[in-house]
Amino acid sequence: MNQQAMMKLRKLQKEMADAQKRLEQTSFTGKAGGGMVSIEMLGNHTVQKVTIDPEAVESKEDIEMLEDTIVAAFNDALKKIEEETNRVMGPFTAGLPGGFF
User: Fold this and answer.
1) Which of 39, 61, 80, 86 lies 20 to 30 A from 19 at CA?
2) Which residues lie across from 39 on neighbouring strands?
3) d(Cα 48, Cα 59) in Å, to the nearest integer?
4) Which residues contact 44 (CB under 8 A, 6 or more apart)?
5) pLDDT over threshold 90, residue 95
């Protein structure tokens, strides 16, 4: 590989690493139950905060529904992270054979 190609590859690797770091530090919010439950999660999948509307629990029977809503909010946050990761990292990996990086 010639020197210019190596320089381009190093630049691409640095840009990818920088983009990955920004993604990992970005906050995403997943919501479910009409906003009854929200989960804030960083792009590195670290949960930062869970917010539950106090009106979500009026009785013990509401707990199972609330648990399902928390799972849905968590999955919503994960979906947003995945979508943003694909949007940001896609240009770096477009056209590359699988597993190149």
Assistant:
1) 39
2) 30, 50
3) 27
4) 24, 25
5) no
Q: Could you tell me which residues come within 8 angstroms of residue 50 by beta carbon, excluding any fewer than 6 positions away?
A: 37, 38, 39, 40, 70, 73
Residue recorded with tokens 């990996």? 93
Q: How far is CA 97 from CA 1, 19, 28, 93, 101, in A?
A: 18, 20, 29, 8, 9
44, 85 contact by CB (below 8 A): no
pLDDT at 72: 95
Buried b vs exposed e over 30-62: b needs ≥16 C-beta within 10 Å?
bbbbeebbbbbbbbeeeeeeeebeeebeeeeee
In angstroms and rounded to an integer, the radius of gyration of the C-alpha atoms of the chain is 19
| pTM of the predicted model as reported, rounded to 2 decimal places | 0.72
